[in-house]
Write a structure and sequence with these properties.
The chain is mainly alpha-helical. 60% of the residues lie in helices and 2% in strands. The longest helix is centred in the middle third of the chain and has 25 residues. A hairpin with a 2-residue loop joins strand 1 and strand 2. It has six helices and two strands; from the N terminus they run ααββαααα. The termini are far apart. One of its GO terms (molecular function) is RNA binding. InterPro entries: NusB-like_sf (IPR035926), NusB_fam (IPR011605), NusB_RsmB_TIM44 (IPR006027). This is Transcription antitermination protein NusB.
Length: 172
Amino acid sequence: MAGTEPQPRVVKPANKRGAARLAAVQALYQMDVGGTGLLETVAEYEGYRLGQEIDGNTYRDADAAWFRDVVSGVVRSQKAIDPRIHASLPADWPLSRIDTTLRAILRAGTYELINRKDVPVAVIVSEYVDVAKAFYNDDEPGLVNAVLDRVARAERGEGRGKDAKGAKGSQD
């Protein structure tokens, strides 16, 4: 299935979790577009992509357990994740209108915000904004920032945006 997932321009994740997040987004994209299953996709990435060189591109060494958690968590929790994303999107942007890569980024970030309470909101949002910057030059990284910030405020009562200070007890 090589070549079916989007290829980032130049991405240098600072850590193994960052590399795992990027790989998770690519795997989610591949599963969505190619119709491949969870087990097959995870096995392919762990066996042939994470830390490997493919077609002259070197995949950074990634935290395989983190990669598995994000990919399997998104698949397992997608019915709970998608409504949270939809509620955080602008009214004129239904989730179905979102590009497949961007949807994978939002799903992975939302999964972590809901399920990885051990990771600070600012880290999750920043990492997925960086993933978005690897694929997009325009407004998409800003959209990722805004949507994940809204999800964080709804799920954790905290965000990282300028309006997040007063959000702790708000009823958004």
